[in-house]
Specification:
This protein has helices at 2-30, 37-69. 78% of the residues lie in helices and 0% in strands. The relative contact order is 0.21. The radius of gyration is 17 Å and the shape is rod-shaped. It is an all-alpha fold. It contains 2 helices and no strands.
Length: 79
C-alpha cells in the first residue's frame, strides 16, 4: 500500500512540475501583448502560480521517493 501511495505522489509531482513549466511558457506568450495593467497582473499571477506549483511538486517528489525507498515514518531517515 505504501508503494502505491508513493507512486501516486511521484505521478502528482510530475503533473505539478509540468503545470509549472506550462505557466512559465504562458508568461512568454503573454509577453508579446501590449503592456497594460492586465499583462502585469498576469505576469505576477502566473509567476506566483509557477513557484507554488514547483514547491508543492518538490514536496510531493520528496515524499514519494521517501515512500518508495521505505524511508518514511517507520524506516531510516536520510537527507
Amino acid at each position: 500500500m505504501n508503494r502505491l501511495i508513493a507512486v501516486l505522489q511521484l505521478l502528482l509531482a510530475t503533473v505539478l512540475f509540468t503545470f509549472a513549466a506550462l505557466c512559465l511558457l504562458n508568461i512568454i506568450f503573454v509577453a508579446n501583448r501590449p503592456e497594460t495593467i492586465s499583462v502585469v497582473n498576469a505576469f505576477i499571477g502566473l509567476g506566483l502560480l509557477a513557484v507554488c506549483l514547483a514547491a508543492f511538486g518538490r514536496i510531493m517528489l520528496k515524499k514519494g521517493l521517501a515512500g518508495w525507498y521505505g524511508t518514511g515514518k517507520h524506516g531510516l531517515h536520510c537527507k
